[in-house]
Amino acid sequence: AQLVLCQMKYNLCHNEITMLIARVFIEQIPKNLRKFMNQMKLSQILRLILMCKRSLGNFGLNCVFLTMLLSLVSIATLVVAYPNEPVRLPSNIVMSNIGMMPCTLNTGTVTVNHDMMLNPGCTYYENFNIVTSNTTLNCRGATIYGLSQIGVGAGIKISDSAYSNMANVKVENCNVEGFMEGILSTRIGFESLGYGKEYVNYLSNILIENNTVSYTEGAGIYVDGYVTHVTISQNMIKNCGSTGIYLDSGSKFNTVTNNIIEHNGYYGVYPTGQLVTYSGISVRLFSTGREGIAIDGSSYNTIEDNQITDNSAGGVFIYTNCGEDVNSDPTAWYPRRYGSHYNVIEDNDFTDSSSGETGVWIGSRMSQNLYFMDCSNPAYYSKPLIYYSLDRASSNTVENNVFNNFTYGVRVEANGANVSNNIFNGNSPTEYAVIVGTPIRTQVLNEPVSGSYITDNESYLPNVSPYRFQIGQTESTFYKNYDNDSATQWCQVSAIPLDPIIFSYLIESDSVPAPTTAPPIPILGEQMPCLAPSSPLGLKANYLNGSITLSWNQPTETGSSPVTSYTIFDAMGAKSGVFVVAGSTSFASQTFTINGLNLYQTFCFYVKAENSVGLSSQSNEVCVFTSLVATKSKSATESESALLEKSNKTVQPDIKEYGEQNLKTGSTLKKASKTIGLNIHNLTSGSTKTDTDRMQKKHILTLIDTFEGFPLGIYRSLLHIFLDD
Predict the structure, then answer these.
(1) What is the pLDDT of residue 634?
(2) Is pLDDT at 383 greater than 70 in this prediction?
(3) Across-strand partners of 130?
(4) What does the alpha-carbon distance between residue 23 and residue 39 come to, in Å, rounded to a whole number?
(5) pTM, whole model, 2 decimals?
(6) Nearby residues of 463 by Cβ (< 8 Å), 6 or more positions away
(7) Start-end of H helices in 554-662
(8) Distant-in-sequence contacts of 384-390, Cβ < 8 A, 24+ apart
(9) What's the per-residue H, E or C state across 346-376?
């Protein structure tokens, strides 16, 4: 009757309901009552009901009422005839023929090859193995309990041979506790699939929804190699020993959405450390633990709208493992052919309450010592007890997320990352929004992280320079990033402290007394703010044969990162454009020659130094008049009163003399004299020189250039005034 009511609630009409009732009541009947029941023709009646349901299809609800009525009649008959007869649950039930699991079977593993519902009031101690396409396991809130089997098997396994096809499986409303993994999707024998044959067959289109998974030794939900199109939605995954969710190598096109992933990855994290022995030497390891979500050699996944909170090592780590256990466990080893590429981490809420964690880490194995991982991939740097292997995690996107209280919001150690439109909140100047760079690969192979796209992020951290790169980067775009609503730049920073071996941030001799609380994780700490360099010094210019050679000295202060280039600015616009000169790491004099300059023109220049933060203030300004005679520049810094005095003593007599020789031209020059005098007045009326002053000088000199046959003496006199030459 309970099952019938359930069917009525969901307005369903399943053949399994009738078959269940038939089998339950027929098997409950004692042998000496079978004859009586046969005389009642109950089994035939039930078969008729089944035929009724099949013929009526969706209109079979009357058949359900009839089934319930006959069931009640049967129960009443049994109770009256044999009131003391125990009611026995069916044994050896074929799960393909029923829709409801009894509470206790003690079968070890339940093979599910058809839709199944569990009793919401029950706790099941079995493993469930779904082996058929188009199958739903609905636990209806029931618990699958494996705390006595921690580290053994999976609570729910969805599995098929790697050489056959399985699709359209749903696991919902289950409470899984204990085991090695909570829910595992795996293709049996996938390790032996040849290159290019990995996706000929498939395990695909799996929905894992509205479950609670906790207290596993391994991952809460595990998607194994070459499994595709798994949707993990609206689950609570908490207190799992390893990662909350693990997407293994070759899996792809998976979606992780609207889950709560909380307090996972603490297996082996002890305040006193963990004693291990290697080559007869006993040491104490202090573990970092694991992250909330591991994307290991898995591509084209979307991680969106999740709450990822207080997991041991951090939020989401994107990497490709090195082919671990090649010698120590060759039966489980398989080649990691594919990297973790083109994953999107978006619209998630990351929160942390301890120090040393990372929100999202792209290329997290690039600078990890993998010596004890027994890797099959070659090392790019190794020596005794040291093994670094190239990680593969390019072209991943982290956008529109909120990061709260992480030591490092986003770390980028792989190429082509897009980190955009994220918000970073925190309460310590030792917290950073984005850090790009991989120290070991850069130093050993001279291959810094390249192609990063860092844009439109907003930091509300107390760190005034929250965006950094470590040990260099190249071909990156850093644009429209903000610190407390003000536009900011990034700069180089010291390398983040590296763990001595993967998963352990500290190794101590066991002779050292064990601490009562774990030592703090080493972190980057507070760094000098990002500063541009000071201005270049002592700019000079020499003119010879149509070329100007500029020379200057480097700034006394390079700022928070080395000078990368110098930019020469044309102060008057006579030579269009600017010239960029590569920087030098020494403080030697810098020079640059500008060729192809026209005669009888004035050119003024100044120089700015640049580092990763931006441009310095400008150097002194120098001007040169191009003529047939070699000249040296002088700084355009004479006082305004001296300029005005020269204008009265030099300009007017020369113009008057020229006007007497040529009345027409002289008349024009008299008008020009008034204009020149007015501009000189304007030029000298302010307290400092500005870009407007230079524009006025440019206007005056352009006016002079319009007079054909203008005497060189007058031209030079005007230049004396404006250029102090």
Answers:
(1) 55
(2) yes
(3) 112, 158
(4) 17
(5) 0.70
(6) 426, 428, 429, 430, 431, 432, 433, 483, 526
(7) 640-646, 652-661
(8) 388/440, 388/441, 388/444, 389/322, 389/365, 390/366, 390/441
(9) ECCEEECCCCCCEEEEECCCCCCCCHHHCCC
Rounded mean pLDDT of the chain? 79
**How far is CA 515 from each of CA 181, 390, 510, 668, rounded to the nearest angstrom?**
32, 35, 11, 93
Quote the DSSP letter at residue 620: -
Residues 84-105: tens digit of each pLDDT? 444 333 333 334 444 577 776 6
Q: How far apart are CA 543 and CA 268, in angstroms?
A: 73
pLDDT at 701 over 60: no
Nearest C-alpha neighbor of 156 from the set 193, 206, 205: 206
Could you identify the residue written with the tokens 């053949």? 15
Whole-angstrom Cα distance, residue 51 to residue 53? 5
Residue 71 and residue 587: Cα distance in Å, rounded? 97
For residues 94 and 503, give the distance between their C-alpha atoms in angstroms, rounded to a whole number: 45
- Backbone dihedral angles phi then psi of residue 702, each to the nearest 5 degrees: -65, -40
From CA 720, how far away is CA 725, in angstroms rounded? 5
Alpha helices in 406-542 (DSSP H): 439-445
- Cα radius of gyration rounded to whole Å, the chain: 40
- Answer whether 610's CB lies under 8 Å from 643's CB: no
Report d(CA 595, CA 647) in Å as an integer: 32
Cβ atoms of 277 and 255 within 8 Å: the answer is no
d(CA 434, CA 409) in angstroms, rounded, equals 6
Take residue 444 and report the two structure tokens written for it: 């050993």
- Determine the Cα–Cα distance for residues 440 and 390; give it in Å rounded to an integer: 10
Beta strands in 224-301 (DSSP E): 228-233, 236-238, 245-247, 255-257, 260-262, 274-278, 281-287, 291-296
At 20-45, the pLDDT tens digits run 554 455 444 444 444 444 444 444 55
CB atoms within 10 A of CB 364: 27
Does residue 520 sit in helix, strand or coil?
coil
The token pair at 132 is 């058929």
Q: Is 441 left (phi over 0), alpha (psi -120 to 50) or beta?
A: alpha
Spatial separation of the C-alpha atoms in residues 721 and 641, rounded to whole Å: 11
State the DSSP H helix or E strand holding residue 487, giving kind and residue range, or none if neither. strand 486-488
599: DSSP letter: T
User: In the beta sheet, which residues pair with residue 605?
Assistant: 570, 622
Cβ atoms of 654 and 572 closer than 8 Å: no
* Cβ proximity of 213 and 191 under 8 Å: no
**Closest by alpha carbon to 432, among 329, 523, 547?**
523
Structure tokens at 318: 């994107």
Residues 204-259 have pLDDT tens digits of 999 999 999 999 999 999 999 999 999 999 999 999 999 999 999 999 999 999 99
Q: ∠686-687-693 over CA atoms, to 5°?
A: 50
Using CB atoms within 10 Å of the CB of residue 226, give its burial: 0 to 12 exposed, 13 to 18 middle, 19+ buried: buried
> Residue with structure tokens 């600015």?
569
Rounded to 10 degrees, the C-alpha dihedral 109/113/119/120 comes to 90
DSSP one-letter code for 192: G
Residue with tokens 């049996």: 188
Res 707: pLDDT: 46
How does DSSP assign 57-101, residue by residue?
GGGTHHHHHHHHHHHHHHHHHHHHH-TTPPPPPPSS--GGG-SEE
C-alpha 693/C-alpha 699 separation (Å) is 10
Going by pLDDT thresholds of 50, 70 and 90, the confidence category of residue 188 is very high
Res 14 pLDDT > 90: no
Any idea what DSSP says for residue 550? Answer: E
